[in-house]
Structures are given as C-alpha cells and as structure tokens.
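Hi R.,

Quick one: here's the Reticulon-like protein sequence you asked about.
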Amino acid sequence: MAEHEDTKGESLIEEITEKFHGGDSSPSSESEDEKHSELKAKIYRLFGREKPVHQVFGGGKSADVLLWRNKKISAGALGVATALWVLFELMEYRLLTLVCHGLILTLAILFLWSNGTTFIHKSPPRIPEVSIPEQPILQFVSVLRFEINRTLFVLREIALGRDLKKFLAVIASLWLLSIVGMWCNFLTLFYIVFVLLHTVPVLYEKHEDKVDPLAEKLMIEIKKQYALFEEKVLSKIPRGPLKDKKH
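And here's the predicted structure, written out as tokens:
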C-alpha cells in the first residue's frame, strides 16, 4: 500500500510539473513565433517582392525554364536562341530564306520517304495533321491586349503629370533604351534580354540573401540622392495646380 501511494504521489508530481512547463512553454513559443514573423517581415526583398522567385515568374513551366528546374529544356532553349542569333546576326542569314530552305528540306525528305517505301514493300509513313489550336492563341491575345492597355493607362497617367517620379523614371529608361538601340539591332537586343532572363533570375535565387541587403543599401542611397535633387531642382520648377475633373 505504501509503495502504491508513493507511485501515485510521484505521478501526481510529474503531471503537475508537466502542466507547469507546458503552460510556461506555450506563451514563450508564441512569442518566439511572433518574433520570427516580425524578423521575416523586416527583411528587405528586391523590388518589394513578397513571393518566392518561382512564383514571381508565374510558377508554371515558363518559370521552370527560366530558373533551370529542368536543365535539359533550359539548355535546349538557350542553345536554340544562340544558334538562331549566330545564323541571323553573324552569318547574316535571312528569316524568309531559312523558312523556305527548311520547308524544302522537310518536304523533300517526306516525299522521298513516302515514295521509297513502295520499292521496299512497306507501308508509307503516316504524316500527322498539324493545326494551330484556337484556345492558346486567344489566351495569348487576351493577355497581350491587357498588358498593352495597362501600359497605355500608365503612360497617360504619367503624361498628365500626376507622378513626377514615374515620369523621370520612364524618361530615363527610354533614353537608356535609345542608347542601347544605337549600339545593336533589335535581334541582338532580344537575344541579350533572353540570355539575361535565363541567367540573372537563377543566380539571384541562389544568392538572394546576399543580394537583398546590398540592394537595400543602394535603394536608400538612391532615395537620398533623389530627395536632394527634388529639393534643389524639382521644387524650383513652377507647376500649376492640378484640378481633378468630376464626371
């Protein structure tokens, strides 16, 4: 009986200590989670993004290609783009000539293959019917239309003078783009953008913890310089009051 009472007493003591520690640990764990979430919220991300890089690029197959999730497809896309750039830019090949030569070669091979099977007593090859599906084309046109309308809306807002910062940023971007256009043609510029899209995002994803603090310092410095420029130059430019029209 005494042993039974001792075991009961020990179990009661263990339950009390567990409850005591459990009640103690829950608020501390909650406070730790809150601190962790606050630290996450304070971390600066490039361009103010809140999602992972993969989701920023859409999270689909295009994001997989840009971030080299499938190395064979990504390397193949980059290789095809490089081959086309070498053909058109370095070897000065023409698009119409390339299309015609490719069609001639394809038709000649299929014609010889289908007619050569009669001499070796085999059935001719089945050439599949190729047609462009309607739904992807409509989706692409719809997305393109939305982006063009959004760009026109932003340009209209900038032209109305409601956001001076955006106006200066667009003017500077167009000026830099015009300088780049003087150095290279559209095909080379398209190829450079294509290569950058296949290299910069994947490198940033691997080293984002090092890049983001540097980007934060750079943005702070740019804001300081812009504030000085606004104080010394932009504030002295006379501007009339903007009157909002009521419809």
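Confidence is low (pLDDT under 50) at residues 1-6, 19-30, 35-41, 242-247.

Cheers,
M.
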